[in-house]
């Protein structure tokens, strides 16, 4: 059961191809999607902010991301991206499986670096900003990956792999030890998030969730805020709005039905909350995404 709950928030999309599991995705919040909810995957991810501002969560840390910031998301890291009020965020997602770097090889690099990296035990989640020492070299690595994937000239895969390895070398040299959230806390959070997702349309209370964890209400509230950066009410509301936004974008269901399926019992409140979060009404949001 715990493994099933753990996998609930695991993204399983294939990035790139099986023989070359590397890809770059240009993304904009809220144009492409309203937000990216808390999740994890076995691939490593680099988030390179190109324009605007937004909130990036890495495990328990919440960062105000701005143009130029580079976020390093090791395999297995819980992470999320949110829109900042009054702004959008344009960024590149660079996602790859560590195995394509040679993690299966029987050599020192694989044993001491790549295998621990794939297990999430080598690098911590990192935010690298423009003023930091070594930033320019990291940015050059990202630009090289970008240019090679755009041109796709013969042998570009070798160039991409070289750029990724160079970037990892720079990061490992600067951040030689992992400071990670304790495993019990991480697993507990994944179980709590699974319960929230499974019961998103129900009235989820602090008391119910605290009982689920076997804790007092006050302890649960402090723990949940520490782990997610949000109160339970704020997190549930964020997830409900995201569920509704996705349905508005991909289905032609009635707005009333969508609001109820997402857990809102009052249509007026849903409309008000949606507009406050995304800057447009549900109807306008649907029209923006060509759903009639």
Can you characterise this structure?
With 292 residues, the chain is α+β, with helices and mostly antiparallel strands. It has two domains: 2-174, Jelly Rolls (Sandwich), CATH 2.60.120.280; 199-288, Orthogonal Bundle (Arc Repressor Mutant, subunit A). The protein contains eleven helices and eight strands. It has helices spanning 2-8, 108-118, 135-151, 156-174, 183-198, 206-213, 217-228, 232-250, 255-261, 267-278, 282-288, and strands spanning 22-29, 36-39, 44-58, 61-66, 70-73, 79-83, 89-96, 126-128. Strands 1, 2, 3, 4, 5, 6, 7 and 8 form an eight-stranded antiparallel β-sheet that branches. Helix 3 runs antiparallel to helix 4 (156-174). It is globular, with a radius of gyration of 20 Å. The model is unreliable at 1-8 (pLDDT under 50). It comes from Blautia intestinihominis. Residues 190-288 form the HTH araC/xylS-type domain.
CATH class of the largest domain: Mainly Beta
- Domain count: the total is 2
CATH homologous superfamily heading of the largest domain: Regulatory protein AraC
The total of beta strands comes to 8
Q: What sort of overall outline do the alpha carbons produce when their principal axes are compared?
A: globular
Radius of gyration: 20 Å
Strand content: 15-25%
InterPro entries: AraC-bd (IPR003313), Homeodomain-like_sf (IPR009057), HTH-like (IPR037923), HTH_AraC (IPR018060), HTH_AraC-typ_CS (IPR018062), RmlC-like_jellyroll (IPR014710), Tscrpt_reg_AraC-type_HTH (IPR020449)
Pfam families: AraC_binding (PF02311), HTH_18 (PF12833)
Keywords: DNA-binding, Transcription, Transcription regulation
Domain HTH araC/xylS-type: 190-288
